[in-house]
Amino acid sequence: MVFLLTHRIAFNPRELVVLPKSWARTLGDVVFEASNDAGGHFYASEKPELLARDLRIMFGKGGGAYKAVKGRSGYDNTSARL
Questions:
Q1: Containing structural domain, residue 53
Q2: What is the pLDDT of residues 8-60, one digit of tens each?
Q3: How many independent structural domains does the chain possess?
Q4: CB contact at 8 A, 55 and 63
Q5: CA distance 67 to 60
Q6: What is the largest CA-CA distance in the chain?
Q7: What is the 3-state secondary structure (H, E, C) of 19-74?
Q8: What global pTM score does this model have?
């Protein structure tokens, strides 16, 4: 099994340390990047609507992580089994 290391980057104005975008892009294969108008280090709990928006775009059709699993689109008509 091969795992590809990919990154999702969010730039938030109230982050503890705001790095230049050019530095963050050197982390590896960046599949999604967002610049937010609000939020900080814990923006997933501060602004969950921004995280949900980013994930929908990233994994949605045409997004950087669309079809991240070979042979699967993430849009199967079958129900998930827990």
A1: 14-59
A2: 788 888 888 878 888 888 877 888 888 888 888 888 899 899 888 888 888 88
A3: 1
A4: no
A5: 9
A6: 43
A7: CCHHHHHHHCEEEEEEECCCCECCHHHHCHHHHHHHHHHHHCCCCCCCCCCCCCCC
A8: 0.68
